[in-house]
Design goal:
Layout: H1 9-22, H2 28-37, H3 42-51, H4 59-66, H5 71-77, H6 81-84, H7 87-106, H8 108-111, H9 114-127, H10 136-142, H11 150-176, H12 180-189, H13 196-203, H14 207-219, H15 231-247, H16 249-255, H17 257-276
Helix pairs in contact: 1-11, 1-17, 2-7, 4-5, 9-11, 9-16, 9-17, 10-11, 11-15, 12-14
Length: about 290
């Protein structure tokens, strides 16, 4: 049974769950686990960790699924990473990393708490209503077994909900006519996206690519001369999120208003604890 939700309730819930998945990519546990498999390059590690659910794919598949990564960067590491370790071995290492990271950031008491088990149940129930069509990263992760331990089940469900929304967001970006670097630059201009040095350091684009994208956005009236969003730019970014909300409504409608409110409350508690324990770099988000 579906229940009408307050405006942006699904978005707020996603914003509480998504960053907990992302703690993986900033975790020293990831480098340790993948180092044991033979990985040495940080970019190769993070590309393998996120794409392994797709199988031993090459750069073209990952460029399509990730959207905002340089194909040149991807081709530097894919499919070569699968010669270092199979996707199955990478997925096992990813789950071990999630286990170690959550235990370190949240503590053993939180990991074993009734609240964690409750959050896992709610998030998995929401994910029951996710759809596979045109959602490659969600669908690939949905084929993976649900871990038995509640904190890992919660991380897995957060991953499903993250990728489901993300896949839908790519549809919105395409409809808005934003190419990969334009999407990144306009998001950074909101003050809520990754700072430019993190974008350029992780997505494989150069400063010239970044400035060229910003110039195209100025030409469309999305950015002003100072690189700030214009009124049209603010409206475009909000329309993107509203379209994404609509495409991602099913899991939260399925969970219902009370369930979404409770999952958001629990998710925020775990997220604040993780952030307070240093899960993310201090300069990760911002315009500078």
């Amino acid at each position: 049974m579906t229940t009408s939700l307050p405006p942006r309730a699904g978005r707020r819930c996603h914003n509480a769950l998504n960053p907990l998945h992302s703690t993986l990519y900033f975790s020293p546990d990831l480098d340790r686990e993948f180092g044991a498999l033979g990985f040495t390059d940080p970019s190769a590690i993070r590309l393998a960790a996120r794409s392994a659910a797709l199988g031993a794919v090459g750069p073209g598949t990952v460029a399509a699924a990730f959207y905002n990564y340089s194909h040149e960067l991807l081709a530097r590491h894919l499919p070569a990473v699968w010669e270092t370790a199979s996707p199955a071995a990478v997925l096992d290492a990813r789950l071990r990393t999630a286990d170690a990271t959550l235990r370190r950031l949240l503590g053993e008491e939180a990991v074993a708490s009734p609240e964690m088990a409750e959050a896992a149940g709610l998030a998995l129930r929401a994910a029951e209503a996710c759809t596979r069509h045109a959602r490659p990263l969600y669908s690939a992760n949905a084929d993976l077994p649900v871990p038995e331990e509640p904190h890992l089940a919660y991380w897995h469900a957060a991953t499903l909900l993250r990728e489901h929304r993300g896949d839908g967001h790519l549809t919105a970006l395409l409809a808005a006519g934003l190419d990969p670097v334009e999407a990144l630059a306009s998001h950074t201009a909101t003050g809520k996206g990754m700072a430019p040095r993190w974008v350029l350091g992780t997505r494989g684009w150069g400063r010239a690519d970044w400035e060229a994208a910003r110039e195209r956005l100025r030409g469309r009236g999305i950015l002003d001369a100072d690189g700030e969003l214009t009124e049209s730019g603010v409206r475009l970014r909000e329309e993107l999120e509203e379209t994404t909300d609509r495409l991602d409504a099913a899991p939260y409608e399925h969970l219902g208003a009370a369930g979404v409110e409770r999952l958001t409350e629990l998710g925020r508690g775990f997220l604040f604890a993780a952030a307070g324990a240093g899960a993310f770099p201090a300069d990760l988000v911002g315009k500078g």
